[in-house]
Amino acid sequence: MSVLVTDGNERAALAVTRALGRKQIDVLVGSETERSLAGSSRYCRRAFRYPSPYEDPKGYLDVLLQMVTDRQVEMLVPISDLAMHLIGERRAQFDARTRVAAPAPAVYETLSDKYRLMRLAQQLDVPIPDTLFVEEGRLPQDLRSVGEFPLIVKPGRSRIPIDGAWTNTSVRQVVNREELEQVYRQTPYLKWPSLIQRRIEGEGQGIFALCDHGRPVALFAHRRLREKPPAGGVSVLRESIELPKPMADHALRLLHHVGWHGVAMVEFKVERRTGIPYLMEINGRFWGSLQLAVDAGLNFPFLLHQLICGRPVQAPVGYRVGVKSRWLLGDLDHLLARLFKSEETLRLPPGAPSRMRCALEFARFFQKDLHYEVERWEDLGPAWQELRAYVKAMVKGRA
User: How far apart are CA 327 and CA 366, in angstroms?
Assistant: First the structure.
């Protein structure tokens, strides 16, 4: 009984590897590099290297197909959005050899494409920020429907093929019409469908879900306490919370509508002024803060393994509220940004904590129910690997 996990340098891959390995399941970890975060874990049975999915997608898929065949892999877990997309293109070949822990490719694209997702949310009465839908980079003249600047520019997809190669996209904040036009003029991937949205000021919250063809099997909720970059991005400190009913209802309405099968993380931002939870995006795969749910008592990787492999799913009735998970090096990046960059450069919202407050909060290393995402005494290999990669990137950046 073995599972193959892709994208070994992702923190989600490490969380999956540990969660399954602790259940005595053999985990194979693939990555583009000789060493990887998840591949350094004691719970990784074997680590292997594959060609870059960006530069050689065919070679990447050929290696994965060979591995699942030779190793008689019971379940394949694609971690990244690109892995989901590429494996989806040859889904029939993988389905003939193993079980893929992902919904049908067409269903995945419906929710992972923010442009299509926001259209669907409108149809299902799920709150979204005031939005302009921009087709093929054609900016509308009238922006009044999305309010005043600053505005948020979101590509529909997180990765887009341009000139035969896959390109990562990113969300941008713009402060005036001139900057908006410049961003659209100079960014090739904004020739694809994109969104211009009103900036929502408030707390990021999310619903983690495991669904069986649209039926909820396990649910979990969290809130973001700190992010990098500080104005909004990847969470570096987060906390488990009780399921907020309106938000959970919105998430389940979307997942039920498409008959979702597998895991998903539905992200919202709760507006400080109104308390309304606005849909931000859906990650139809394992997410960066997965370890929080595991630490709070919901082992999503193992529950997914039971579901995909046709075994009875024994989900816990609940989970522990108030558990915190900290990505230490990500939190260090947050602190450095706050200390050495101005609020204007970071484009922080009103009411952001002071630099002194940020430094004091960072120094709170020991708290009740605080868990470190990567650093684990019984499994220190990933922490050393992450630190080596972090220092190497810093030295390279200064060269």
Answer: 14
